[in-house]
Amino acid sequence: MGEDIRCRPVSGRVHEAIHEKEWYRVGDNPSSLEKRDGVFFTHFYISIKKIDARDVQGIKFRRTRNMMNYKKYVRQYFMPPVKCMKWAEKEYVEKAPIWCSVDLRDGNQALVIPMSLEQKIEFFKLLVKIGFKEIEVGFPAASETEYEFLRALIEQNLIPEDVTIQVLTQAREHIIRKTFEAVKGAPRAIIHVYNSTSLSQREQVFRKSKEEIRKIAVDGAALLKKLADETDGNFLFEYSPESFTGTEPEYALEVCNAVLDVWKPTPDQKAIINLPVTVEHSMPHVYASQVEYMCDNLNYRENVIVSLHPHNDRGCGVADSELGLLAGADRIEGTLFGNGERTGNVDIITLAMNMYAQGVDPELDFSDMPGICEKYEKFTGMNVDPRSPYSGSLVFAAFSGSHQDAIAKGMAWRDEKKCDKWTVPYLPIDPKDVGREYDSDVIRINSQSGKGGVNYILMHSHGINLPKVMREEVGYMVKDVSDKAHKELTPDWVYQIFSDHYINTKSIFHIDECHFKQVDGITAEVTINHAGESKVITSNGNGRLDAVSNAIKQYFNISYELSFYEEHSLTKGSSSKAVAYVGIICNGKTFWGVGIDPDIIRASIEALIVAVNKIEELGSANACTDARMIEIMNYVQANYIDITLDDLAEKFFLSKPYLSKYIKEKSGMTFGDLVKKIRMKKAKALLKSSNMTVENIAMSVGYQNVEHFNRLFKKAYDMTPMQFRNQK
Fold first, then answer.
1. Residue extent(s) of CATH 1.10.10.60 domains in the chain
2. CA 692, CA 603: separation in Å to the nearest integer?
3. Which pairs with CB-CB distance under 8 Å and at least 24 residues apart come from 8-15?
4. What is the pLDDT of residue 7?
5. Residues 130 and 372: beta-carbon distance below 8 Å
6. DSSP designation for 234
7. Which residues contact 75 (CB under 8 A, 6 or more apart)?
8. CA 590: distance to chain centroid?
9. Residue 360: helix, strand or coil by DSSP?
């Protein structure tokens, strides 16, 4: 292949040139003359030298390029003599065909190391368990192992009553006779005879005419009929025009009808005509047209089972089979996982599950796909491709965040709507139907995953259903671990990351115990363990969690907002446990904590502790560790309604000036500001938790004048008490 270039003549005789960015000339000394395809070629002893591009004009040079020579190939298939397109009017395969596994013959002969006798017996049992009613067990004339396997099945009564075995033989007399010896006594057996009919095989391999090839088929068919009558057993006949896809359809029909005329099939003794895609030569629609032509024109059609045996040379074995069934075929020969010669046979698993995915019973059981994969790999030494449809380890896996999110939402939709039909995005079938698990086979976590996937894993593996507002943070944290480790994260690993960050983080303090009193709100006595010491802090709140939160603020003299709270029962494992999620905001940052405990209050407190422990300033906060100050604060909390500095001084045997200075030093507030702060917190609690009037609330927290109370409240929170109450 080349591109012609016109150049100006140069000195010397130039016959051809090579162009690769530079110009060259070729020497002109002839050596020999050769005739090729009617054209004379002169060979030269050449010397190549670089020439100046300015000196070349008008001479034909050739620019060469490397590429595959597609022109050496021709289409080797033949279309039927009439239009056959009725198959195109059908939408889907409406019922399961007769399935015949050829794993033990076609699949076995393709193995580098064929299966042993013991392996073949175990594989046979697996095929029976899956539900195959017809199983090709071998080519008994091919080897001693094949022969012994067949005899073992028969003599050990390993063939169930509803299973028919099948054996293959060439249309050669001695092979046919050997086959009948091997199959003697079979309760029910298909004798499958074949000879090649394609144009290329007729011309190149056998060098025989159409009539001679047809005679091989007819003679083989006649011998099958004769020996079946002479041999103990129950036999059916099958004929294959091998290399059917390279055979003229009219001639294939002629041969098959000649065979059928020998057998004369009846309703009680049907014959099988198998149309193999020995080599894929065409697009699937061509094969469908060929099959339709045969189905429409075979003799004894009502007593003939039309079978297909597609190989996968063009990667279209499944399409060939499905379109062939639409074209009228009744039966499929194939293998598990597409094992077989060259690129393999059609994968029966894919075919069957395609039907299943459209609500058609395939009449085969693949519910334990992991177990089938394991046994197949053990028997054959082959590996199931992780992308093999329905069966591969990755075919349901979703790593992408958007895919994970869609799947998770689809699953939630099913639960919400109680759907009885499967329509989950990205999953053509329910993975559980083939023995897969959602949290290990579907939602897979790596650096490409999203918040939805992480939440799905936590929920389905450990019962943790994260609040929506929390999912993004957790998702990014888990993804970051995967990215840095360059690994996929298992569900247990995901949970460990989550647990370490949101459940077990209590590095600065923890709370040993809490006691609550309910009198116009909640009063809490909280034992805080910090720096090796335990201190009891008394505080008020509009609920138990708020009261504990106020105790923590009081102890560490910090400020944060309790912004989010959510809880649910643990959906996996112990149903008696509750999960609480707490979010706090400090200096514009959100911190999350999670608590798990049989007691929901305890779970909430644990979550709060984790969240507060994440505040960076906590480690350097001036914690209230002074025992006397803690006593003073607790006393003020208990008596805030009418307490005075005089009362407090008398209680702790201190002078008023010293006490005032002491409180200011330890808390950063005056006595009056401290009492005011406690009263306002109590008022907030009552506004949210009671139906008391503002006037009554003012009085209950120590203010006789409601207008004064309103002014103080607005100054503290930048809103009136009623505005606070009416907040959503």
1. 627-725
2. 30
3. 8/55, 8/56, 8/57, 8/58, 8/59, 9/56, 9/57, 9/58, 9/59, 10/51, 10/55, 10/56, 10/59, 14/59, 15/42, 15/44
4. 41
5. yes
6. -
7. 281, 282
8. 34
9. coil
Is 21 exposed, middle or buried (CB count within 10 Å of its CB: 0-12, 13-18, 19+)? exposed
Three-state secondary structure call for residue 354: helix
**Is-contact 400 415, C-beta < 8 A?**
no
DSSP state of 110: T
Residues in the chain: 728
Residue spans in the chain of domains classed CATH 3.20.20.70: 86-380
Main-chain phi, psi angles of 318, to 5 degrees: -65, -45
Residue 39: pLDDT band (50, 70, 90) is: low
Q: Letter for the amino acid at 473?
A: E
| Neighbouring residues of 636: CB distance < 8 A, sequence distance ≥ 6 | 643, 648, 674, 675, 678
What does pLDDT average to over the chain?
87
State the sign of the Cα–Cα–Cα–Cα dihedral 611, 613, 614, 619.
positive
What is the rounded distance in angstroms from the CA atom of residue 626 to the CA atom of residue 630?
Answer: 6
CA gap 200, 125 in Å, rounded: 39
40, amino acid identity: F
Block residue for tokens 């917190």: 681
- Give the C-alpha separation, 483 to 481, whole Å: 5
The Cα 200–Cα 246 span in angstroms is: 7
Contact residues for 484 (Cβ-Cβ < 8 A; gap 6+): none
> 3-state DSSP call for residue 265?
coil
For residue 350, which phi and psi values (nearest 5 degrees)? -60, -45
Provide the sign of the torsion angle of the four alpha carbons 133, 134, 138, 140, taken in this order.
positive
pTM reported for the whole predicted model: 0.70
pLDDT in tens, 371-396: 999 999 999 999 999 999 999 988 88
C-beta neighbour count of 294 within 10 angstroms: 27
**Can you give the three-state secondary structure of 138-173, one letter per residue?**
ECCCCCHHHHHHHHHHHHCCCCCCCCEEEEEEECCH
Per-residue model confidence as pLDDT tens digits over 56-77: 455 444 545 568 899 999 999 9
CATH 3.30.160.270 residue ranges for the chain: 509-620
How far apart are the C-alpha atoms of 585 and 592, rounded to whole Å?
Answer: 9
Give Cα separations from 412 to 233, 460, 465, 541 (angstroms).
57, 12, 12, 37
Query: How far does Cα 141 stand from its chain's mean position?
Result: 44
Q: Is domain 509-620 annotated with CATH 3.40.710.10?
A: no
β-bridge partners, 191 = 167, 237
Q: What value, to the nearest 5°, has the Cα angle with vertex 158 and ends 156 and 160?
A: 140
As a whole number of angstroms, the distance between CA 236 and CA 727 comes to 84
Lookup: tokens for 3? 């591109």
d(CA 565, CA 552): 17
Options 3.40.50.150, 3.20.20.70, 3.40.50.300, 3.30.300.130; which CATH number does 86-380 get? 3.20.20.70
Phi, psi of 709, deg, nearest 5: -60, -45
- Assign 489 to helix, strand or coil: strand
Sequence letter at residue 372: I
Regarding the domain with residue range 627-725, which homologous superfamily does it belong to in the CATH classification?
Homeodomain-like (1.10.10.60)
- Do 49 and 12 form a contact (C-beta atoms < 8 A)? no
How far is it, in rounded angstroms, from Cα 466 to Cα 474?
A: 9
